[in-house]
Amino acid sequence: MRELERLKFRGFRWEDFPVVLEFERELAMISFPDSPILDENYHRQKIEKATGNKSDSLVVAELDRDIVGWLWLRTEKDRTSGERFGYVKSIYVKKEYRKSGIGRRLIRVAEERFLRKGLARMNLIVNPSNREAVLFFREMGFEESSLTMRRKLAAGDA
Questions:
Q1: 141 φ, ψ to 5°?
Q2: Nearest to 23 by CA among 38, 7, 42
Q3: Which of 6, 27, 28, 42 lies 20 to 30 Å from 72 when distance is taken between CA atoms?
Q4: What's the pLDDT tens digit per position in 1-51?
Q5: What is the pLDDT of residue 2?
Q6: How far is Cα of residue 98 from the mean position of the Cα atoms in its chain?
Q7: How far is 142 from 123, CA to CA, in rounded Å?
Q8: Where along the chain do its domains lie?
């Protein structure tokens, strides 16, 4: 797609916050449908903390000055092995630009940044009900490595 030639990646700036807030809110609704946190101050505080953290990297994808994608990366440490690894905390592509290659380019940006840090793997978490995202991540080479299960408790369960 020719328009991808005009796609640029840059660091997050606070003037981007209104757009990124909408991205993060949509991600919250998809990822946590039973209890999404949509509060602006909550998201502002999360991003403020991330901008001051050397382990975090916040990237926007811009096409003709329009923010069309978002990537929040973090370097983490495995609690068991001590291995450092890359964690994709958020990845988002605006609806009208999905399936255009922007998501693939965002994953490539993540790979490049993590490789520059000497990391050998990257992880992310996706809600299994988000089938489109699950398929996309599988196409990008991600494999399932664990399964989180939950059960709601009621007072009479004990």
A1: 95, 5
A2: 38
A3: 6
A4: 567 789 999 999 999 999 999 999 999 999 888 899 999 999 999 999 999
A5: 67
A6: 15
A7: 8
A8: 2-142
Closest C-alpha to 85, from 51, 127, 118: 118
The position carrying tokens 């001051």 is 52
pLDDT attached to residue 158: 65
- Asked if the 2-142 domain carries CATH number 3.40.630.30, the reply is yes
- Per-residue confidence (pLDDT) for residue 124, from 0 to 100: 96
Amino acid type, 27? L
Burial class (CB in 10 A: 0-12, 13-18, 19+), 27: buried
Q: 138: part of which helix (H) or strand (E)?
A: helix 131-139
> What is the C-alpha to C-alpha distance for residues 33 and 50, in angstroms, rounded to an integer?
24
Tokens encoding 76: 């983490």
pLDDT tens digits for 77-129? 999 999 999 999 999 999 999 999 999 999 999 999 999 999 999 999 998 88
Determine what percent of the chain is predicted with pLDDT higher than 70. Answer: 97
Q: What is 49-64 written as a DSSP string?
A: HHHT-TTEEEEEEEET
What are the structure tokens assigned to 131, written together? 């089938």
Six token digits for residue 156: 């009479």
